[in-house]
Amino acid sequence: MALRGLRDRGPVVAVLAWLFALLAAGCVAGATFTPPPASAPSSVEADSGAPPADGPPSPSSATPTPTTPAPTTSAPTALAPTPAPRPSCWCPCASASAVYPGVDIARVTLEGGPFFTPATSDPDIRRGRGLVTPAETVVDGVFLDRFQQWDEGAVWWETPLDAPIDAQWIRIDLDGPWTLDAAIVQADNNDTYRLAYRDMATGDWMTLITVPPEYSFGMVTRPDQYDDTARLEFYRTGSTVALCFEAQEGDGMYAVSEIQVFGTRADVSAPSTAP
Predict the structure, then answer these.
(1) If you classify domain 105-265 with CATH, what class do you get?
(2) How far is it between the farthest Cα atoms of the chain?
(3) What is the DSSP string of 233-269?
(4) Where are the domains of the chain?
(5) Is-contact 144 225, C-beta < 8 A?
(6) Is the pTM of this model over 0.85?
(7) Residue 6 phi, psi (nearest 5)
(8) Which pLDDT score, from 0 to 100, does residue 18 have?
(9) For residue 6, what are the CA distances in angstroms to 2, 21, 65, 94?
(10) What's the rounded Cα separation, in Å, for the pair 132 and 12?
(11) Which segments of the chain have a pLDDT < 50?
């Protein structure tokens, strides 16, 4: 009867025996398995940022130990020198180096009414910055850039249209008597100017040349706006020690940036001559 009952439970016993065998095997395996100690990741693992193949790192290995970087042995990079500040410059030709090719000049003075001063307070699109320029720049041997703004780098002045046009003029004293024969003038393009010399016998101002307009823009050289070496031949020759440059006709806004006068030293005993 007992054997029969056991035989009837045979399948159940077999299943239970099979489960017991599995549990026993697991216990044995768990008792004998010892995980390897945690170690720092290899250089390849550190570079890739991926966790080790056998699982995430343990808490002790998750935070890397800070290290002090090795001091660099390369030489420090040299810093570029700081450039010196550029001086303020009121005149484009202020730093230019040139030799005056004409007769020897003793001094230049601005005579008559005000220079570098607008005739009116009304806005005028013809005006630029209105820079102040030393009188000596008209005989420094330097021409301004062709078509440069008339009141930026030249000696300039304004005359009200109802005032005498010769209220302002430029006097150029020579270093002695000279006999003059030609000149080159760079002045505002749309005006007429007069270059005169002082007669040594009478003291009168006598016209050497009328400088005509060259209609374009800004500062233009006469007689040829594209050739700064072409010369204006004088109407007459004579010995003198001083010159006068003044406006003769125009729009009330005048400027000159270069006056080059040519000639030979005069014999003070020779009288002035005229054609």
Answers:
(1) mainly beta
(2) 173
(3) EPSS--EEEEEEEEEEESSSEEEEEEEEEEEEE--TT
(4) 105-265
(5) no
(6) no
(7) -65, -40
(8) 62
(9) 6, 20, 66, 126
(10) 120
(11) 1-7, 27-34, 39-62, 73-97, 272-275
